[in-house]
Amino acid sequence: MKKIISIVGARPQFIKLAPLSKKLRNYYREIIVHTGQHYDVGMSDSFFRDLDIPKPDYNLDVGSGKQGEQTASMLTKTEDVLIKENPDAVIVFGDTNSTIAGALAAVKLGIRTIHVEAGLRSFNRSMPEEINRVVSDHICDLLFAPTITAVNNLKDEGLTNNVYNTGDIMADVLLENLEKITDNKSPGCSDNPYYLLTLHRPYNVDDISKLKRILDLLNKTDVEIVFPVHPRTKSKVDEFGINKYKNIKYINPLSYTEFLKAHLNCSKVITDSGGIQKEAYLIKKPCITLRSETEWVETVESKWNLLLSEYSDDLPDIINNFNPAGEHPELFGRNVAEKMVEIIRRKI
Ligand code: UD1
């Protein structure tokens, strides 16, 4: 049996790995490498448990650090594993530091490397993720693009060989888990209407005056805000004591299923995450994205997602009044993991 190594490290990558790993194991010996970028139980273990992902064969324990420091540590440690295991292919996911480190280590060893979620662009080079995406796409051998827009972005950069429009793998996870949900109760969420909030992008949370401005404004919306707080955000919130808002309920990060329930039950979602914009679309929730641009432009074009980056005094009203309706075309495909494995079997 040929051997494939899947490299993950951060929360959204565990989600993307889940369905692919399941299908891949019918034909390949899969080895999972966890870089250790996310290490809290609520950011890592709960996802492996919840989504029934096999225990990683390696945990590189890199932990947190500056961009270069963290990426360098992953690169060195991943290279050692790849030399030892000598796989037939490597799979990397998304746009985190674990993605670029895994891709770089693999291609330099001449190992065929597959990028899941290729071709996304925010065209904002101040985001570490944008650098990770561009570099990963240009060095990987097989590019699995989630949307036509992503395929076209790759084309604009001269990348047309071995590019496949597979659909978005997170749609597989969402649709599968929706079927398993029997109740809508999630920790910290009440039966009253609420908006669900997530915030973790450095440009929203690292500058304390900006983070405070956002929370001050969200405190004035018509309904309660439920806020599962990412550790990056939590450290800022605690350091500066901005955790006492009447209208904002802070809770711990949720597992995949708990978050899905909280999402299904909310009136609207307010986020700066990429994945949540898609999930909101798939379950038909109005989504307000606190960013000036998005990689998932289709959700904005279809008018289910509203981009806001000004944080002006009327932000609470804009959120309260955002009520998309109407057309809801299928944007992200179905049975994506299966399509990916079919392509991998032809190529690897
Ligand atoms: C990373 C990804 C981002 C992705 C996000 C999902 C990069 C550059 N960014 O951002 O694309 O959307 O994951 O969550 O790869 N921390 C903990 N416990 C943990 C993990 C992190 O306390 O388990 C804290 C640490 O203080 C750390 C900070 O969160 O310094 C940021 O973590 P890091 O992995 O560097 O980036 P994220 O903001 O999570």
Q: Please, how many helices?
A: 15
Q: What is the β-strand count?
A: 13
Q: Strands of the biggest beta sheet: in what spatial order?
A: 3-2-1-4-5-6-7
Whole-Å distance between the termini?
Answer: 11 Å
Low-confidence stretches: none
Portion in helices:
40-55%
**Largest beta-sheet details:** 7 strands, parallel
What value does the average pLDDT take?
97
N-to-C order of helices and strands: EHEHEHEHEHEHEHEHHEHEHEHEHEHH
What would you report as the Rg, rounded to the nearest angstrom?
20 Å
Oligomer: single chain
Q: Which range does the strand content fall in?
A: 15-25%
Q: Shape from CA axes? A: globular
Give the helix/strand class: alpha/beta
- Heterogens: uridine-diphosphate-N-acetylglucosamine
Could you walk me through the main structural features you see in this protein, from its secondary elements to its overall organization?
The structure is a single chain. By secondary structure, the chain is α/β, with parallel strands linked by helices. It is built from 15 helices and 13 strands. Strand 2 (29-34), helix 2 (45-50) and strand 3 (58-59) form a beta-alpha-beta unit. Helix 4 packs parallel to helix 5 (128-139). The radius of gyration is 20 Å and the shape is globular. The termini are close together. It binds uridine-diphosphate-N-acetylglucosamine.
